[in-house]
Each structure stands twice: as structure tokens, then as C-alpha cells.
Design a protein that fits this description.
By secondary structure, the protein is of the alpha/beta class. The chain has helices at about 15-30, 50-60, 75-85, 105-110; strands spanning about 5-15, 35-45, 65-70, 90.
Length: about 110
């Protein structure tokens, strides 16, 4: 594995607390060690308890950045996430996606 590559996973979310929690559980089971990637979650003006999920996961995951974007639209949220990204490769996920456990490892190996 290349130690030079670092992946930023940008996830915009809006009012999908339950789906987001499932996604974060799946990401925590990725086969690629967390030192090679980060999660950038952008709360896009949610009115449900999405922020509670973000706060909980910030405490659980050292590679998670949680941001807020008040301009509604996944484009605004994605752009904010990209600006905060540390990676030299950016991958996008929607909050209702469940990635394969080797998703990031396969990206990393290419």
C-alpha cells in the first residue's frame, strides 16, 4: 500500500439520521486502516436529529470531521467538504449508501 495516498470521503447529509448511522457503521468496518483515510460529514441544514449522530460519531472516530452547511443543496455541502479535505484523492458517498467493506482498500490499491 502506498503511504503517500490519503483518501477523503465526503458525505453530504440532510435529514437522514438513521441512514447516516448505518453508513457510519459500515465505514467503521472498512478493511483499509483509518490512518489512510478520513470522513468529512457535511450536515446540510438538517432539521431532524442528524447533528446528534454527528456529535456521537465525532467522539468515536478520530478520522471524522463534521461540518455544517446552511445553504440547502448537496452541491453546497460537497463543495464545503472538498475545501476541508486533507486527502490527495476525494471520494463521494451519499448518506443512504452502504459501501462494500473493501471499497476504500480497492480505491487505495489502484
Amino acid at each position: 500500500m502506498s503511504s503517500e495516498m490519503f483518501i477523503s470521503v465526503v458525505i453530504p447529509t440532510r435529514n437522514r439520521r438513521n441512514q447516516l448511522e448505518r453508513l457510519l457503521n459500515e465505514l467503521s468496518a472498512q478493511s483499509l486502516p483509518a490512518r489512510f483515510w478520513e470522513i468529512i460529514l457535511v450536515n446540510n441544514a438538517s432539521s431532524d436529529r442528524t447533528q446528534d449522530v454527528l456529535e456521537l460519531w465525532k467522539g468515536r472516530s478520530s478520522n471524522l470531521k463534521a461540518l455544517e452547511e446552511n445553504r440547502v443543496g448537496s452541491n453546497h455541502a460537497r463543495n464545503k467538504g472538498v475545501k476541508a479535505a486533507s486527502g490527495n484523492l476525494i471520494a463521494f458517498l451519499d448518506d443512504d449508501t452502504l459501501p462494500h467493506p473493501q471499497w476504500l482498500e480497492r480505491i487505495f490499491e489502484r
